[in-house]
TrEMBL record:
Lineage: Eukaryota, Metazoa, Chordata, Craniata, Vertebrata
Protein name in UniProt: PACRL protein
Spans annotated as Disordered: 15-45
Taxonomy, superkingdom: Eukaryota
Signal sequence region: none
Length: 211
C-alpha cells in the first residue's frame, strides 16, 4: 500500500525530455559527461579552482552543475519535480546515494529536490534490484541524516528509510542495527514518538521484526 499509484505518479509527474543526447539514445541516461561516481560525492573534486566561491555542500554543487537530472517546478498549489530524462533510465549509482546525501540539506530547493527525487527514483519498476546492492553505502548516509540535529532533516531521513524499506524488504534487516540508536533516541522525544513508532512498525512489516 505504501507505493500505491506509482504508475499514475510517473505518468502525471510532468516528465519531459528536453533534448536527445548521445547518452539518452542508449538505455541509460547520464546527466553529466561520465564523471567517476566518487566525484559526485567528494567535495574535494567539485571545483578545485573555485575556492573563492566554494559551494555550501557537495549536493548543492552537483545540483548546480547539472548532476541531478531533475528540477523543481513551482506550481500554484503544489511543487513537483521535472525529470530531464525518464527516471527508469537514470543510474541508481550514484544518484540514489547523492539524493540521500541531499536529505541533510536545509536550504530550498535542495530540501525538496532531494526528498522528492529519492522517493520518485524508488518508484521505478526495477528499483528493488537497483537499490539492494547500494545498501552498504546508503545506510551510513541515512544514519547521518537520522543523527542530524535539525528536526526537519531527521523527518526526511525517517521518511526515506521507510520508503527504502518498502522497496528492498528483508534485505535491509542486517543494516538496521546501525540505525536503531538514532531512532530510539528520537523515540524518547514526545514530538517524534508517534512518527518513530509508526516508522518502526512499517520497518517490521516490510522486513520482519526490528531487534
Amino acid at each position: 500500500f505504501f507505493f500505491s499509484g506509482s504508475n499514475a505518479l510517473r505518468m502525471s509527474s510532468g516528465i519531459q525530455i528536453k533534448k536527445k543526447t548521445a547518452a539518452q539514445k542508449s538505455e541509460t541516461c547520464s546527466p553529466e559527461p561520465q564523471p567517476k561516481p566518487s566525484d559526485k560525492l567528494n567535495p574535494k573534486t567539485i571545483d578545485p579552482f573555485g575556492a573563492y566561491s566554494r559551494p555550501p555542500s557537495a549536493f548543492a554543487a552537483t545540483y548546480a552543475r547539472g548532476g541531478i537530472p531533475c528540477r523543481l517546478v513551482h506550481g500554484s498549489v503544489k511543487h513537483k519535480l521535472q525529470w530531464e530524462c525518464l527516471p527508469e533510465t537514470v543510474p541508481f549509482d550514484p544518484l540514489l546515494i547523492t539524493l540521500a546525501e541531499g536529505l541533510r540539506e536545509t536550504k530550498h530547493p535542495y530540501t525538496f529536490v532531494s526528498k522528492e527525487g529519492f522517493k520518485e527514483l524508488l518508484l521505478v519498476e526495477d528499483a528493488t534490484e537497483k537499490a539492494i546492492p547500494l545498501l552498504p553505502r546508503l545506510v551510513p548516509v541515512l544514519k547521518a541524516t537520522l543523527a542530524h540535529a535539525d528536526d526537519e532533516v531527521f523527518g526526511r531521513g525517517l521518511d526515506a528509510l521507510v520508503q527504502l524499506s518498502a522497496v528492498v524488504g528483508p534485505s535491509l534487516n542486517d543494516h538496521l542495527k546501525l540505525l536503531l540508536t538514532n531512532l530510539l533516541r528520537r523515540l524518547m522525544e514526545k514530538k517524534f514518538r508517534e512518527k518513530v513508532t509508526v516508522a518502526l512498525q512499517k520497518l517490521e512489516q516490510y522486513g520482519g521484526k526490528v531487534s
